[in-house]
Specification:
The structure is a single chain. 56% of the residues lie in helices and 14% in strands. It has a single domain, classed as Winged helix-like DNA-binding domain superfamily/Winged helix DNA-binding domain (Arc Repressor Mutant, subunit A, Orthogonal Bundle), CATH 1.10.10. A hairpin with a 2-residue loop joins strand 2 and strand 3. By secondary structure, the chain is α+β, with helices and mostly antiparallel strands. The protein has a 3-stranded antiparallel beta sheet. The protein contains 5 helices and 3 strands.
Length: 109
C-alpha cells in the first residue's frame, strides 16, 4: 500500500460515507441526504461536521470543489480520494472476513 494512503487510514465513519456520496459531484445538502440514505439512516451529518470534513478532505487532496452554483459549492472526489476509499474498503473486507471466521458464534445473532 502507498505510504501516503496508509497515513490517511483508517477513515472515520463520516469521512467514509462522505467519500462514497461524492462518487458523483454534489453540494453539501445533497451529500448530507446521500450519507443518511446510503448508511440506511445510521449516519446523519450536520452542516458543521460536513463543512469541517470538506476543509480536511480538500487539504488532504481527497476532494476538490468543481464549481459554485447558486451559492452552493459542488465537490467531487479526486483520484487520490478514490484510492483511499478503495484502501478503506479492503481494510473493512479483511475485518469482516476475520471477524466472521474467528467468532462463529456471532452467526446466531
Amino acid at each position: 500500500m502507498d505510504a501516503s494512503i496508509d497515513k490517511l487510514l483508517p477513515l472515520s465513519e463520516a469521512t467514509y460515507y462522505i467519500l462514497l456520496a461524492l462518487n458523483e459531484p454534489a453540494h453539501g445538502y445533497a451529500i448530507m441526504q446521500q450519507v443518511e440514505a446510503i448508511s440506511e439512516g445510521a449516519v446523519k451529518i450536520g452542516p458543521g461536521t460536513l463543512y469541517g470534513a470538506f476543509a480536511n478532505l480538500e487539504k488532504q487532496g481527497l476532494i476538490v470543489m468543481v464549481r459554485e452554483a447558486e451559492r452552493r459549492k459542488v465537490y467531487t472526489m479526486t483520484d487520490m480520494g478514490r484510492h483511499v476509499l478503495l484502501a478503506q474498503l479492503r481494510r473493512l473486507r479483511v475485518m469482516v472476513r476475520v471477524g466472521e471466521a474467528s467468532a462463529p458464534f456471532l452467526s446466531k445473532y
